[in-house]
């Protein structure tokens, strides 16, 4: 009788990038333990976290039983974590050349495009101390363009990389969830809306988002002014300790 796999250690806070990883772990049915990283309280600067996430950003993952049989393996960057888990467990990332190519295209489209642009949309529209009309308009329009790209793609295929649900869908979905905050209208994108509803209804998605309602996340409040300084005032000194 084989022993159960030890749980992954997921260093997490309920943000779009955090949700990506819980979505995949739930789809895989793999055990994992949550290690909260309160980014508004500065947990991302703790030495023990920087040891596994040198970019002082979550999520990060520690695999206690990597396939090579070696020491526990740590990973940072959500896209890299998605690829690692999909490859290790042989799921949600096709093995064939063309299928894999399509998934990686849309995964990198999210990490290099949708995520950063929507993130700036959130920043200038919600968090910036000064409302700069040009910046707000710039990122709202670019987010809108990217929604249009996704809608056009989903008019042709059921999921973003083709016929099957993959890590590309899991990477993109959490960045569409806050569409209202991004000043978008989901109803303007019928194919995107169809896909969004299907992903939202998946049992693993429901379970992943339920994690954000558990302690210590359920009682979290809005970002404080002190939290904003931690999140948006970082320089090299934040991670090196040098002036």
TrEMBL record:
Q: Which SUPFAM superfamilies match?
A: GST C-terminal domain-like (SSF47616), Thioredoxin-like (SSF52833)
- Pfam families to which the protein is assigned, alphabetical: GST_C, GST_N
Q: Where is the GST N-terminal domain?
A: 5-93
Q: Which residues form the GST C-terminal domain?
A: 96-220
Q: Which domain of life is it from?
A: Bacteria
Family per similarity comment: Belongs to the GST superfamily.
Q: What is this protein called?
A: Thiol:disulfide oxidoreductase
């Amino acid at each position: 009788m084989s022993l159960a796999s030890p749980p992954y250690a997921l260093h997490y806070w309920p943000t779009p990038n955090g949700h990506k990883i819980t979505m995949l772990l739930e789809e895989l049915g793999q055990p994992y333990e949550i290690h909260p990283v309160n980014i508004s309280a500065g947990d991302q600067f703790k030495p023990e976290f920087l040891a596994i996430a040198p970019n002082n950003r979550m999520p990060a993952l520690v695999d206690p039983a990597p396939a090579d049989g070696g020491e526990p393996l740590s990973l940072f960057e959500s896209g890299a974590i998605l690829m690692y888990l999909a490859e290790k467990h042989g799921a949600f990332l096709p093995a064939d050349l063309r299928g894999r190519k399509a998934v990686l295209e849309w995964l990198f489209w999210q990490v290099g495009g949708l995520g950063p642009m929507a993130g700036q949309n959130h920043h200038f529209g919600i968090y910036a101390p000064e409302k700069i009309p040009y910046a707000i308009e710039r990122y709202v329009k670019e987010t809108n363009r990217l929604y249009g790209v996704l809608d056009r793609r989903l008019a042709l295929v059921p999921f973003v990389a083709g016929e099957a649900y993959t890590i590309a869908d899991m990477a993109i979905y959490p960045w569409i969830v806050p569409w209202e905050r991004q000043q978008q209208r989901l109803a303007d994108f019928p194919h995107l809306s169809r896909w969004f509803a299907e992903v939202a209804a998946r049992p693993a998605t429901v379970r992943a988002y339920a994690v954000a309602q558990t302690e210590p996340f359920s009682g979290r409040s809005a970002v404080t002014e002190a939290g904003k300084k931690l999140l948006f005032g970082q320089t090299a000194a934040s991670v090196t300790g040098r002036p």
